Structures are given as C-alpha cells and as structure tokens.
Amino acid sequence: MMDITLRKKRRRWLICLSPVLIILVSIFAITYGSVSLGISDIWNVINGKGEIIHETIIVDLRLPRILIGLLVGACLAVSGSLLQGVMKNPLADPGIIGVTAGGGLMASITMLMLPHLSYLLPISAFIGAFVTAIIIYVLAWDKGASPLKIILAGVAINALLGAMQNGMMILYSDRVQSVLPWLSGGLNGRSWFHLEFMAPYALIGLILSLLAIRPANLLLLGDDSAKLLGEKVEWQRFLLITLAAFLAGAAVSVAGLIGFVGLVVPHAIRLMIGEDYRFLLPLSALYGACLVVFADTIARTWFDPVELPVGILLAAVGAPFFLYLLKKRGMQ
C-alpha cells in the first residue's frame, strides 16, 4: 500500500512538473547559443519590434530546431517505452533491435551512392527503419513471435546492417565526411523544411500511441492472460512493434542516429511510477522531449565554437546514467 501511495505522488509530481520543464527548457534553448539573447529580445521579436538579426536567430534558426528536438525526443522515448513493454525487456529500444540501423543504412546509401537525391534523405531513412522492423518480425516468426526471438533477430540484423554500412563507407571513403555528422545524431542545420516533413508522421505516431495504451497494459499480464481476455496477442504485438518503428523512423529521418533516449527515459520513469502505460507513455514522451532539447542546447553551447552532435553527448551521459540505474535499483 505504501508503495502504491508513493507512486501516485510521484505521478502527480511528474505530471505537474513536465509542462514547466518544457517551457523552461525551450526558453533556455532560445536564449543561449553563439549569440545570447535576453527575455526582452524575445519579447520584442514576439511584438514585432525586435531587431532583424534577433528575429532571424529565433524564428529561422532556433525555434524550428527546438520544435524538432521536442518531437524527436517524444518519438524516441515512446518508441522505447512500447518496445520495452512488448518485449518485457528494459533493455529494448529502437537501437537495440536494429530499427535505427535500418534507417541509418538507407540514409548512408542516399548520401554516399545517390548524392544527387539528397533531398530524399528523410524519406529514405524513414523507409529503412520501417522495412527493417518488418524484416525482424518476419525472421522471428515461428508459430508466433516471442519477445526473445525478436530481440535476437534484431541484434543479428543490427550487426549485419552495421557491417554493410561500414563497408559502404570504406568503398566511398571520399564522401564519408558528409555522412559522419548524420550518423552521430544531431539537429544542426535543421529548419522549417525538416519540421514540415517530420511533424505529420510524428504527430500521427504519437496520437496512435495513445490508442496503444490498453493493449500494451494487457500484454504486461502475459500472453496467456491476454488471450483469456480476448486479445489477439500476436496481432497486438505486431501492431505495437510497427508503431514503435514508425515513431523511430520519424525521428531518425531528420535527427540521425540519436541513442539512449528510448532506453533511459522510459526505464527511469518506470522505476519511479511503475508499469501502467496510462502514465508511463505520456510522461516518457514529455520527458524525452525535454531531454533532447536540453542536451542539444548544451551540445551547441558548451563546446563553442565547435558544435558537438547531440547524439555524442547523450551517449556519453546516457551510458553512465543507465549503468547507475542498474547498480542502484536493478532491472525492475
């Protein structure tokens, strides 16, 4: 009883804190950078009285980057949350099962072999992530697709796609510089064009994820219990994995290979509030969004004049943090 009461209090705190954090992180991202801005500068731009240079920095450079960061973080966190629940494994995320590797390979093919079609990069990355998820599910199918089989198939496909990508980078070593920033994961140079491409996919995926709350909760009961309640377990699992791939593909298509968001955020929230997807899914989305925007701001300001890709920073911080969680709380 005490544990349930404590989790309810944590849920309330996290729900109340999330919009405040999003606002604060967004203001932090707008004001800090190679050119620092004050609140008065932002207010003047909103009123149409700001300097042209400030308007350009806020409207054309930082605002679309913030919005993309929010969507990318939300998509990756929800994707990881769904995969962890479906596979009953807190280590599952889009990177582990190879979904992001599929998107990365298709993006590399576009940039290295078809540079004249670079405008198709977002679409090719999305298709690569989605097709990889389908292939993994088909390979894992044997009178059903168990979570263990899916993870094993995903690890194998991940290794295969990584080898193919490395080989292609060696063959096209003269063009590899154009690929490295994207593979590192980052939001540098992202504009309203990228937001317009990504937003419909991201918003559709996030809305559909709300419909996934009930089947995700039922799958937590176990396959036998879910079947007794009338659920088509394999069909539900396939739909949830497809939705997770859809969300990961939307994120990868504009941000590159950003890791650890889908792994750390839902796992940390699960440790605090439990498994209930009514709370776990929306809170993962909100705090994943905050994490990516905050980390991106740190990555582009602390190492000025060099802009560090946010994927590198998240990997450097996320890995030790996740190991700390494992040591402190265990794989609950």
TrEMBL record:
- Protein's cellular compartments: Cell membrane
GO molecular function terms noted in the UniProt entry: transmembrane transporter activity
Q: Which GO terms describe its cellular component?
A: plasma membrane
Say where the protein is mainly found. membrane
Q: How does it sit in the membrane?
A: Multi-pass membrane protein
List membrane-spanning regions.
Answer: 12-35, 66-83, 95-113, 119-139, 151-172, 238-265, 277-299, 306-326
Q: Which GO terms describe its biological process?
A: siderophore-iron import into cell
> One of this protein's Pfam families, by short name?
FecCD
- Which UniProt keywords are listed? Cell membrane, Membrane, Transmembrane, Transmembrane helix, Transport
Its family remark reads:
Belongs to the binding-protein-dependent transport system permease family. FecCD subfamily.
Query: Would you tell me the protein name for this molecule?
Result: Iron ABC transporter permease
